[in-house]
Amino acid sequence: MEFSIKSRSPEKQRGACVVVGVFDSRKLTPPAAALEKAANGYIAGILGRGDMNGDAGSSLLLQNVPGTLCDRVLLIGLGKEKEFHEKEFAKAIRTALKAINETGATDASIYLCELPVRKRSLAWRIRQSAMIAQEAAYKFDQFKSKKDDTRRPLKKLSFCVDRRSELPLAEEALAQGLAIAEGMSLARDLGNLPPNICHPTHIAELAQAKAGEFKLDCEILERADMEKLGMHSLLAVAQGSHQPPKLIVLSHKGGKAGEKPVVLVGKGVTFDTGGISLKPAPDMDEMKYDMCGAAGVLGTLRTVARLKLPINLTVIVPATENMPGGGATRPGDIVTSMSGQTIEILNTDAEGRLILCDALTYAERFDPDTVIDVATLTGACVVALGSVASGLFANKDALAHDLLDAGNEAHDRAWHMPLWDDYQELLKSPFADMGNIGGRWGGAITAACFLSRFTKKFRWAHLDVAGTAYKSGADKGATGRPVPLLAHYLMQRAGKLN
Ligand code: BES
Ligand code: MN
Ligand code: ZN
What we know:
Distance between the termini: 25 Å
Helix content: 25-40%
Number of strands: 21
Bound molecules: ligand BES, manganese (II) ion, zinc ion
């Protein structure tokens, strides 16, 4: 789809469809009033007959409206003007896209972005609209032999602003929204790919291809390299599988030389059977999504590279399967991590922390300013927060607050969870420095506590996205989260958020 920003009054707009809003009790927004003026009572007449009230989520399609130059006028109900906040704004954009797609229009001009939304700038409204439009257009049908392409797709979408002076700012926001959507779409594709195709080698090859396209530095560590580095915790997870593990490192160098990078680490378990601590059969297919942390950080890198953000960003992806093959790790095995700390593997299904701990130790060599890991780490986090918020842990409160703010701004929210020392003792092992599980309670927290033992040398945050990175049930699929949160955090750091 092609996107643009325009500033032209709606009655002078040519094309297949002009979209304007109506608040409840048939109160016209300024662009709707401009059309009504040109149409000389035509729209008010239709509303007066009760065909539309302006209720949120409603829409009404009009053809050949007198006094206008476009084929169709689409009215979108916005609900109460006083309650038109960010959620209602997003709903209006979604309703508009759905209604446009039900027509034969291949282009549309949307006049909803200049409506004030409490605490939200024009740039925010444009960014959000672009993201919503691309999200709605997302399809994952590469494995369907018959594609569902019966209706004429929307090809051109314009967001309209009041003043020409707003064009540059709106255009920058549009570019940001599209770059975030592009990152999300990469993350969703990677997540949705079946696990026989999206294995560690596939992710490594994709990383190399992206490195070429975006001029990123790329390094892939093989099993032998990991052995030399002493990554025995990561290797323990990989040893039950025929697929070789990969540690993928990609760097975007947009900042000043010598500026400390932000490092993003993403859990890349391309399929999690649980290993010898085998998972139950129902819904086990969803464990193909256990690489959504990796997909999220790679998607974020794509957004950052697309926007050429003036920051240094390094992404590390430990990628492996967790399989119960004959060589698999046994419960009770003790391994020495790259950090030198020993781990008693009491449950082979707590594998995410075992691969992340070595990747986090490896992050030290980049002398990072900040490290953020992203992982579908625990079912306990889903129990705690459901699919609304990601779990956020950090060893510095200021970092946690910056990430919470970014999540609120992006509408990709996280919730701050505790990392108090009191939880650390649950990881005690009689035989090694620690066990890899902390017992029945507080599972998301004890998992984060485990990681915190490998992140003492830098500012660090951990996002548990087990409940937010993908959806189960009828609309099963990867969501692209937390790309919006991370992208907003990095845009903010780069001073590019309006
Ligand atoms: N990948 C899972 C976590 C998960 C569970 C993600 C459900 C999404 C939905 C992780 O590797 C895992 O199995 N965690 C265990 C940890 C436990 C053994 C301490 C869990 O959450 O049950
Ligand atoms: Mn597991
Ligand atoms: Zn897992």
